[in-house]
Amino acid sequence: MATRVKTVRLLVLLLLTSLAPLAPAQNPIAPRGAERSPDCLPSASRAKASCEPTQVVVHTEQEITFSLEIPAPKTSHCAASIELGYSQRDTVVNVEGTIENKDCGASQGEYKLAVRIRDENRELKTLEFFESWQRQDSEPVRFEGVHSIGENVDLVSVRSIQLSCTCTATPAE
């Protein structure tokens, strides 16, 4: 903001100085053919000061007040929350849950399910499944899914990671 005010002041100063006519005594350039007095030496001489006309600098200031209206930034991200329930059925895991978002109505996003299993050698492994969601109103999103986890494994846990949410434009009513 301060930089813009300085720029505007500089432009006004330049405009005012260009519009003000120079008086003959202030003219920094002597016209060609003007006679010099005999006391004046050429400008390259060190013996005496040159008779070249001096430059006159004119400073003027004027305060200008103006206002700018800056609109508030639109928020496009939101903070969604997710609740999960899960159970193992032989070689698959059934996952169901709800996604809520109180920041905006119409929204969409993605999440990753991290499914931890223990195989027949008792080693822990994590399987990842990517999902997406979308809603047009402010109601919670309910989802269900079935994911294959393999044979001879025990389900340890299912959790959601990297839940993202973006507010979308509300459809025209």
Description:
- The chain is mostly beta strands.
- It has 2 domains: 1-70, no CATH class; 80-167, Sandwich (Immunoglobulin-like), CATH 2.60.40.
- 10% of the residues lie in helices and 36% in strands.
- Strands 3, 4, 6 and 7 form a 4-stranded antiparallel sheet that branches. The protein has a 3-stranded antiparallel sheet with strand order 1-2-5, with no helix packed on it.
- The longest helix has 18 residues, at 2-19.
- It is elongated, with a radius of gyration of 39 Å.
- The protein starts with a helix and ends in a 6-residue tail after the last strand.
Low-confidence stretches: 23-28
Percentage of residues in strands: 35-45%
Query: How many helix segments?
Result: 1
Number of strands: 7
Q: According to CATH, what is the topology of the largest domain?
A: Immunoglobulin-like
- Residue-averaged pLDDT, rounded? 78
Write the H/E string, N to C: HEEEEEEE
The Cα radius of gyration reads: 39 Å
Distance linking N and C termini: 39 Å
* Protein structure class: mainly beta
- Assigned CATH class of the largest domain: Mainly Beta
Residue share in helices? 10-25%
